[in-house]
Design brief:
This protein is of the alpha+beta class and 807 residues long. It has 19 helices and 34 strands. The strands form 10 sheets. A 7-stranded mixed sheet has the order 3-7-1-16-13-14-15, with helices on both faces. A 5-stranded mixed sheet has the order 11-19-18-17-12. Bound molecules: cytidine-5'-diphosphate.
Length: 807
């Protein structure tokens, strides 16, 4: 070896593989304004569509008159439910097994529901046309409060379901009931409660909120009448599923549908489902023979295109006097809005909410979820969380704090006492999951040491004494949260969407010069897949990440995948990438053996190529193998170096984390100051620590928004009162607290590279940390539970109700 021969460290560093803080390659175009989004697309002769929407939350549609609209210069067509009926598309199936109106058919069921679609030569003409469509409504009684949905005299919302005593998920108990889902052992759980020394019971609401990505939902549909082909560019988190759905409902052959998701400006679950805009733009294009663009505005996105949460969870814990939990009972009232359009795997009407036992060793548990209809927008998307997991984490983390308060035990100590122990993994939870791996005690203790937890509690005691003496008007809250996520849907035995198993895929093609392209079934919405997927391949096959181009989102070129949501990309697509790379490596080994004139078994892998065992100078680099793959493969072997993998994971992955929030609240104004927020995450093997940190920062900011103010709120008449960013809390850098991040590494035993997902974790763990901090502060004044969101006004009201505000 001479001085110029790179060292092993230099060879490893040159790959920029896993563990490297590689800079995001996609940012080169994003930071220069060179991203390519749906609204950047301008096709010759392109038309624009926009919706007439209902001002009422519940009303009969007596008539729709389009005459005046059609006279507006530029307006070409007004599509209504009657038009759609001629092509059998007035209603569409939802992912949850329900049906949903595409355009109002006889009645409207939520404010801003789509009533008619105006097609015009430009967006302004379409808007002018909307204002000229005359719709006659007959208002009906409105149902907003989920607790009144199953009252005897509650208004009948879904007249189309009249007489249907069962739905996609079993029997219906009431005309506004969708499903009842039960998990766990009722008898054993009831017995645990009968024997319990201590019990707690609390109704814990997770309010309705919205993912509100920077870029709203949009599409361009272009039907080629000659070829009979439909091309759809759209903001789709799952383009292949969209292609299949379009094929099924529009009865077009799947090979004649091309779905392309270009750059996407954030998804957070909002861009998983199929919306009326997609159907109407496609129909309009088929009818006019021209491309049709539909782009939502912000108010439409917030009020009509999906929502998240709206779960009302009554949690009960049974425990011993010493604080050992013995049973968990949870009932959920799940408000799904006007149609059940939740984006969950088919068999899971309440997603993976049965992860509600959290990180604790509950010997027994029982869960009942009742889904109901209301006059609110449909959706129920996985907003930065795996299906309904953030609701479950919030429920159990609040309940554990309430138990700690009742027992007078420190909340962190109570958690340590009840954690699943490292030796119990794989751990079978009382509600049916098999947790793959975890080391909760180490994570919790690391968090407690880093923030000097004991010191914080001492300071809090001193502040409380000072408050009592009238020396301060601030109360201090310490919010501990420890969450277990469940991500990576999923094993095909458990999870499907419309009957398609939830696997994912990767195809790698290595070119002769040692560069390659990887096409993946996932679809980044800003998570940095182009950067990290290349890092996995770099480590696996010893080709620098810079030499691997990653492509996602085009159904014509990418292998079939189920898309990106619920942090499934790394657990499922990430695994497919590693497996495809290993197939490349296996063929490469045969080629190297042939070229080096040894048996394959005499070769060993060494960073970026193979070397002959015992003869370290006899090597062949992966780059050279790529060249050989195109000119001198062993006799009988096909030339080329390509592989594809469809990966069906054997289990989900279970990331976890320990978070803490320290907050001061002024009781006279309700103003809070987040003094410190520390987040320790364990997502197994870390592919790119810098991207992980970015994911955690983003997720924590969303958690902060949700816990401290963000809400889709309705008045009694069903009007959305937080329908724009004037009222819907969207934090900027000014309000956002400083985040401290940390980690432990507990690899997933079944994932090829040991990685678990991370993108959702900070939202899942962050919300309970904030809420526990507020509740911990107010517990000192005698309160048990204050519902989110904890904005200044509500904090002030809570302080007043607890008698802490001067008259
Ligand atoms: O499905 P989604 O991409 O939203 O979530 P994810 O699998 O949690 O990945 C989010 C980003 O973090 C991706 O760019 C991953 O490659 C990266 N990540 C990582 O670097 N290491 C992990 N163990 C998990 C995710």
């Amino acid at each position: 070896m001479n001085d110029l021969t790179p060292t092993r460290e230099q060879r490893t560093a040159a790959l920029e593989g896993m563990g490297c803080k590689r800079k995001r390659v996609e940012d080169i175009r994003f930071t220069q304004g060179k991203g390519s989004y749906v609204d950047d697309l301008k096709l010759p002769g392109m038309l624009h569509g926009d919706f007439v929407r209902s001002p009422h939350a519940h009303a009969r549609v007596k008539s729709i008159n389009s005459e005046a609209a059609l006279k507006v210069p530029g307006v070409l067509a007004v599509i209504t439910a009657e038009t759609l009926k001629t092509v059998n598309l007035a209603w569409m199936p939802t992912l949850a097994g329900d049906v949903q109106m595409v355009l109002a058919d006889g009645k409207v069921l939520f404010q801003n529901q789509e009533v008619a679609f105006v097609v015009a030569t430009d967006r302004y003409a379409a808007d002018d046309g909307i204002n000229k469509v005359v719709v006659e409504y007959e208002p009906l009684p409105v149902l907003i409060d989920p607790f009144k949905a199953m009252d005897k005299d509650a208004p009948v919302l879904r007249e189309d379901l009249a007489g249907k005593t069962s739905g996609a998920h079993g029997p219906r108990k009431h005309h506004n009931h969708i499903f009842e889902w039960t998990v766990g052992d009722k008898d054993l759980t009831d017995a645990a409660f009968r024997k319990a020394e201590v019990t707690i019971k609390e109704m814990i609401s997770y309010h309705r909120t919205h993912p509100s990505p920077l870029e709203t939902c949009q599409c361009v549909c272009s039907f080629d009448k000659i070829k009979g082909e439909l091309t759809i560019w759209g903001t789709f988190q799952a383009p292949h599923v969209i292609r299949t759905v379009v094929s099924l409902i529009a009865k077009l052959p799947e090979q004649k549908i091309h779905v392309i998701s270009p750059d996407i400006g954030g998804g957070f679950g909002n861009k998983v489902g199929a919306y009326p805009g997609y159907i109407c733009a496609a129909v309009a294009s088929i009818v006019t023979g021209k491309p049709v663009k539909w782009v939502e505005d912000r108010i439409e996105n917030l009020t009509a295109t999906s929502f998240a949460r709206d779960y009302h969870m009554t949690a009960e814990i049974a425990a011993t006097k010493e604080g050992k939990v013995t049973g968990l009972r949870v009932h959920v009232l799940a408000d799904h809005g006007a149609f059940d359009a939740c984006a969950d795997p088919s068999k899971w009407p309440a997603g993976f909410f049965n992860i509600v036992t959290g990180s604790y060793d509950f010997p027994t548990a029982h869960l009942v979820v009742d889904g109901i209809y209301s006059n609110k927008a449909p959706g129920g998307v996985a907003y930065r969380c795996s299906f309904r997991v953030t609701e479950a984490a919030y429920c159990i983390e609040r309940a554990m704090d309430i138990l700690a308060q009742k027992l007078g035990i420190d909340p962190a100590e109570l958690r340590l006492k009840n954690f699943v122990k490292p030796e119990q993994f794989p751990y079978h939870s009382a509600l049916g999951w098999e947790y793959d791996s975890g080391d909760y005690h180490t994570a919790m203790r690391k968090m407690m040491e880093t923030v000097e937890y004991a010191g914080l509690r001492k300071e809090q005691a001193e502040k409380r004494a000072a408050f009592k003496r009238g020396e301060t008007r601030e109360i201090m809250g310490i919010g501990v949260s420890f969450f277990t996520e469940i991500v990576g849907a999923g094993p095909s035995k458990n999870c499907d969407i419309l009957g398609i198993a939830m696997f994912d895929s990767c195809e790698i093609r290595m070119h002769p010069t040692g560069a390659g392209i990887a096409r993946v079934g996932s679809k980044s919405q800003g998570q940095g897949h182009e950067t990290t997927w290349a890092q996995i391949i770099a480590t696996e096959i010893g080709i620098p990440a810079d030499n691997i181009m990653v492509e996602e989102g085009n159904t014509d070129t990418a292998p079939y995948g189920l898309g990106t949501y619920g942090s499934r990309s790394t657990p499922v697509a990430g695994a497919a990438i590693a497996m495809a790379a290993r197939k490349i490596k296996a063929k490469a080994q045969m080629i190297a053996a042939y070229k080096l004139e040894v048996h394959e078994d005499d070769l060993e892998w060494d960073i970026d190529g193979f070397r002959v065992k015992g003869l370290p100078e006899k090597t062949m680099s992966m780059k050279d193998i790529c060249w050989a793959a195109y000119n001198s493969v062993p006799p009988g072997m096909e030339p080329g170096l390509e592989a594809v993998s469809y990966y069906d994971p054997p289990n989900m992955t279970y990331p976890f984390g320990a978070y803490i929030c320290v907050m001061d609240i002024d009781v006279d104004t309700g103003v809070y100051k987040v003094r410190r927020f520390y987040a320790l995450d364990d997502c197994g093997t870390r592919i790119n620590p810098m991207i992980i940190e970015g994911q955690v920062h983003g997720g924590l900011t969303e958690a902060f928004a949700i816990a401290m103010g963000q809400e889709i709120r309705y008045d009694e008449g069903g009007n959305v009162v937080t329908g724009s960013f004037m009222d819907f809390f969207m934090p900027t850098a000014v309000e956002t607290p400083h985040w401290e991040t940390d980690f432990t590494v507990t690899p997933s035993p079944h994932h090829p590279i040991g990685a678990k997902g991370v993108g959702e974790s900070p939202n899942v763990g962050g919300v309970p940390a904030f809420s526990n901090a507020v509740n911990d502060a107010f517990s000192f004044l005698g309160s048990t539970h204050i519902q989110m969101p904890h904005d200044y006004w509500r904090n002030w009201k809570a302080a007043k109700a607890l008698g802490a505000v001067a008259a």
